[in-house]
Structures are given as structure tokens and as C-alpha cells.
């Protein structure tokens, strides 16, 4: 858990997300697997994923940041978290 | 309950008065009632204060939704649509869009949300309505069905495909190419303004695309539906409270075989089940609202649980209330007759009971 002024190491973000996805789907994940592809997250978990990212890393993901590109893989999501944490106030919008 | 919520409850109770029966029979809500509530921000009370809204949390907003739901299922349906539209704009819109659109929803305008299509009901991944972008404009084409509140709406949020992803387009009802066809004979929530919406090459400026579009369709749909499910669930609590009150009043006052109906055990059981149903639904909604307000990790499951449990108990409870009132409750328009028809629809919309069961099973199974 960090506050928005802290930066989380990209590795730590990835480890956390892989754990989250494994818990939700009951299968193993790598940083490059397609999150919304077949065998990926159900729609119920899609929103939980966003809530989890916001809470765990102290960012706010709104507007243009919700585009699919940012969520395709664990790698992409960790980049999103890094970008939002750097922006500081959480969320750049579109 | 906070003072503002109690005050709002009194306002809406006075505004509705004893007219909900007539609205149901006429199949229409008076525009001035909708406008007054919209202007007071009470059709979407969770819109944050920075956009001019009441900024209530989910628990307070839920209690108020139950209050409205106990008075008039159609009005509560319009609130569900408005709140879902507001939440979708807040979550998916960029800051400029939120600043432009949300203040409208607390100053008199109303909105509706269109997901469903003829061939895409439970399976929204089958939707074919699509949006394309060229230069500075977008073009939207498709046919949506059963859009609650579309007859009253100043603008519609239309969920569409955008290439391989999803998008939400803000469509003014008067835009060229938009047709709204009223559904004249719904089983329940008869005054909620349901309509089919046809979109024929509707061209709009690019800033009508929430957040630029291209969000994952499942994410976009669950985000919007999460609010709708909370609102429906609390609305069902309201229906249960209205049915319980009517059943208790009748069972206590009407006498057959020399004693009040409530003294006959088989009737008493209906009352017990109604009360239990109201309590169970209330607890499930309170829990989900707490999860909402805390941004809890398992919010999704809590919301689906609340919707599933509340709709089932509302449908069963309304049927029990009609049984207890018998001929006294079998006039169209009567509060329990309305609840009987309205509650059944709550098992169909915003994720049918079967779809909720599949989601809850998936949730349980994934925790192995
Ligand atoms: C009063 C009312 C208001 C509405 N308001 C809106 C609105 O504002 N906006 C909007 O976009 N839509 C709205 N809808 C549409 C609503 O969302 C759909 O009716 C709903 O999603 C179900 O789709 P369907 O009617 O096509 O049923 P279908 O999807 O055809 O389902 C028929 C039956 O099969 C079951 N079923 C389907 N698939 C499965 C499965 N995989 N496993 C088990 N059972 C399954 C369903 O649960 C249901 O019992 C409204 C509908 C009504 C009746």
C-alpha cells in the first residue's frame, strides 16, 4: 500500500497484479498475457480490477485512462500505474 | 439517516402524494415532477458536489432510492437511469466531459442509458451498434431496445462497438438520425418511459465520445451496470417495504372467520416471509453500499448479490402481499398490484437472476 505521493516499483506492481489475477481466475499469469482474452477476467472482475488498482496504488483511473490499451496486459497496467503516480494527482483524463 | 436525506424523502413523498396509481394507469409521469426532482439533483443524488450535485454516499442515496421505490416503481426506474448515466459519465468521461454534462443532470435535464439490442440482451458482447470516427466527427448506427426513461430523456448514453473495443456515445435526443419509439404496453414500471431507440448514421462532434472511447466492453458495461444494480436493489427494498406495510395493515384490520386475518397462521406466515425478505434485502443492500463507499475489492460481487437477493425477495414478497390482500389488492394501480408487476421485471433487468447466478457462481468458484 502506498500513498499517491509514493512511487511503487514496477516489479512490485506486476507481482501484485499477477497475484490478483491468479486469485480471481484460478490460473497462472504472466506479465504479457491478454487480460480480457479467453480465459481472462470475467466482466464482474473487470470493475474489481480497476478498484483494486486505484486502492492499492493510490491512483484514480478515469476518462481516457480506461482505454483498453492500458489494461491489455499486466505489463501495460504497471506502466499505467507508474504514469499516474508520476502525474501525482491521480488521473490525467484524456 | 442524515437530515438532507430525510428532507428529500419528505419532498418526494409530498410530490408523489397519492398519484402513483394514476401514473401507472396512464403510463406516464408528469414532466413537472421529473423536472422538479432533476433540478433538486434528486434523480442522481450521488453526483459529487464539485459538479453541483448533492454528493451523497451510496448508503444515503440507497435509502432515498428505497423511499422512492416504495412510492412509485416507475419514478424509481427513471432515477436508476439518471444515476447510471451520471455515474458512467463520472467514471468514463474525461474531466471536461464531466464538467460539461454532470451539472446538466442536476439542473433539470434527464438522461437514459442504452445497452440492449434485439439480438443482444443477456449477451451484450453480441451488440452490433457501432461508432466510427473520421476527422473531427463520429458516426453512430444501430438499434437499441427497451431503454428505460428514453421517452423523457434530453440525452442518451449509447453503448457501442468501436472497432474491437467498446465506447459510450452521448447522443442528444434531438440529433438528426435519432428516433425514439415508445413501448406502449410494458408489464410493469408502466410510466417509466421505455422506448426503442433507432440511430441512423447519427453524426456528432468527437467530444461526444466518453473518454475517447476504446474501453474494454466488459469493463464499460460492468461499470455502468454496477450503479444500475445498486439502484434496482434498493428500489426492490422499497417495494418490499410498501408491500409489507400494506400486508400488515390489511392482516391486522380485515376479519374473516371471526378474527383478524393475521391470526390465521397461514396468513401470518406470508407476513413473516415478507418481513424476512425486507430485512434480508436491506442487509444485502447496506453491505453493498458500504463496499461501494469504501471502494472495497469485492465490490462487484457484493453489488450482484444485493441485486439478485433483493429482486428475488421483491418478486416473492409482492406475490405474497397480493395473496394477503386478495381482492383488495387486485386492482391495477394498487400499490401491491404495481409491485407485483414491477418486481417481476427486476428479476429480468440489469442482469437477470440467471445471469446473477452465473456471476456469483463464477465468483465463488474462483476462490477455490
Ligand atoms: C422494464 C425493462 C427495462 C429495461 N431497461 C433497459 C435500459 O434502460 N437499458 C437497456 O439497455 N436495456 C434495458 N432493458 C433490457 C434488459 O436489460 C434485457 O431485457 C435483459 O438484459 C435481458 O435480455 P433479454 O430480454 O434479451 O433476454 P434474453 O437474454 O433473451 O434471456 C431470456 C432468458 O434466458 C436466460 N438466459 C440467457 N442467457 C442465459 C445463460 N447463459 N444461462 C442461463 N440463462 C440464460 C435469461 O436469464 C432470461 O431468463 C430493460 C428491460 C425491461 C424489461
Automatic annotation (TrEMBL), chain A:
Membrane-spanning intervals of the chain: none
Domain of life according to the entry: Bacteria
Coiled coil segments of this chain: none
One Pfam entry name: PP-binding
InterPro entries documented for this protein: ACP-like_sf (IPR036736), PP-bd_ACP (IPR009081)
Segments forming domain Carrier: 7-85
Protein name: Carrier domain-containing protein
TrEMBL record, chain B:
Every Acyl-CoA oxidase/dehydrogenase middle domain range: 112-202
Protein's name in the database: Acyl-CoA dehydrogenase
Organism, as annotated: Mangrovihabitans endophyticus
Record key words, sorted: FAD, Flavoprotein, Oxidoreductase
A Gene Ontology molecular function term of the record: acyl-CoA dehydrogenase activity
Family membership: Belongs to the acyl-CoA dehydrogenase family.
Domain Acyl-CoA dehydrogenase/oxidase N-terminal: 11-109
Keyword Transport: no
Residue span(s) of domain Acyl-CoA dehydrogenase/oxidase C-terminal: 221-360
Pfam families recorded: Acyl-CoA_dh_1, Acyl-CoA_dh_M, Acyl-CoA_dh_N
Key word Translocase present: no
Obligatory cofactor(s): FAD
Domain of life of the organism encoding this protein: Bacteria
CDD domains, per database record: ACAD
Signal peptide feature range: none
Amino acid at each position: 500500500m502506498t500513498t499517491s505521493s509514493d512511487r511503487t516499483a514496477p516489479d512490485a506492481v506486476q507481482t501484485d497484479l499477477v497475484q490478483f489475477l491468479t486469485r480471481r481466475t484460478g490460473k497462472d499469469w504472466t506479465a504479457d498475457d491478454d487480460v480480457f482474452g479467453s480465459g481472462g477476467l470475467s466482466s464482474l472482475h473487470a470493475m474489481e480490477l480497476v478498484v483494486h488498482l486505484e486502492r492499492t496504488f493510490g491512483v484514480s483511473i478515469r476518462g481516457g485512462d480506461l482505454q483498453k490499451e492500458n489494461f491489455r496486459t499486466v505489463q501495460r497496467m504497471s506502466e499505467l500505474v507508474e504514469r499516474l503516480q508520476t502525474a501525482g494527482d491521480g488521473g490525467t483524463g484524456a | 439517516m442524515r437530515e438532507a436525506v430525510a428532507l428529500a424523502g419528505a419532498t418526494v413523498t409530498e410530490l408523489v402524494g397519492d398519484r402513483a396509481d394514476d401514473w401507472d394507469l396512464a403510463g406516464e409521469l408528469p414532466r413537472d415532477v421529473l423536472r422538479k426532482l432533476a433540478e433538486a439533483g434528486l434523480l442522481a443524488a450521488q453526483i459529487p458536489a464539485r459538479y453541483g450535485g448533492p454528493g451523497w454516499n451510496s448508503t444515503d442515496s440507497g435509502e432515498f432510492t428505497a423511499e422512492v421505490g416504495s412510492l412509485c416503481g416507475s419514478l424509481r426506474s427513471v432515477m436508476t437511469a439518471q444515476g447510471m448515466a451520471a455515474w458512467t459519465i463520472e467514471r468514463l468521461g474525461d474531466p471536461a466531459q464531466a464538467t460539461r454534462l454532470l451539472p446538466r443532470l442536476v439542473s433539470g435535464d434527464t438522461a437514459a442509458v442504452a445497452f440492449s439490442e434485439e439480438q443482444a440482451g443477456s449477451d451484450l458482447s453480441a451488440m452490433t451498434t457501432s461508432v466510427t470516427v473520421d476527422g473531427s466527427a463520429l458516426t453512430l448506427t444501430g438499434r437499441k431496445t427497451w431503454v428505460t426513461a428514453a421517452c423523457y430523456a434530453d440525452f442518451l448514453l449509447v453503448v457501442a462497438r468501436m472497432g474491437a473495443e467498446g465506447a459510450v456515445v452521448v447522443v442528444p435526443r434531438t440529433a438528426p438520425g435519432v428516433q425514439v419509439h415508445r413501448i406502449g404496453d410494458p408489464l410493469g414500471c408502466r410510466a417509466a418511459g421505455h422506448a426503442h431507440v433507432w440511430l441512423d448514421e447519427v453524426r456528432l462532434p468527437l467530444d461526444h465520445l466518453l473518454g475517447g472511447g476504446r474501453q474494454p466492453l466488459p469493463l464499460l458495461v460492468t461499470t455502468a451496470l454496477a450503479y444500475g444494480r445498486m439502484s434496482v436493489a434498493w428500489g426492490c427494498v422499497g417495494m418490499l417495504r410498501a408491500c409489507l406495510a400494506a400486508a400488515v395493515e390489511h392482516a391486522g384490520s380485515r376479519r374473516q372467520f371471526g378474527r383478524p386475518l393475521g391470526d390465521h397462521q397461514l396468513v401470518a406466515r406470508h407476513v413473516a416471509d415478507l418481513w424476512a425478505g425486507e430485512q434480508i434485502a436491506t442487509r444485502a443492500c447496506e453491505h453493498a453500499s458500504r463496499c461501494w463507499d469504501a471502494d472495497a475489492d469485492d465490490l462487484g460481487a457484493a453489488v450482484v448479490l444485493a441485486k439478485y437477493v433483493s429482486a428475488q425477495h421483491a418478486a416473492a414478497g409482492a406475490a405474497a402481499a397480493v395473496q394477503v390482500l386478495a381482492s383488495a389488492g387486485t386492482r391495477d394501480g394498487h400499490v401491491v398490484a404495481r409491485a407485483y408487476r414491477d418486481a417481476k421485471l427486476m428479476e429480468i433487468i440489469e442482469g437477470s437472476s440467471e445471469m446473477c447466478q452465473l456471476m456469483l457462481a463464477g465468483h465463488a468458484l474462483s476462490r477455490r
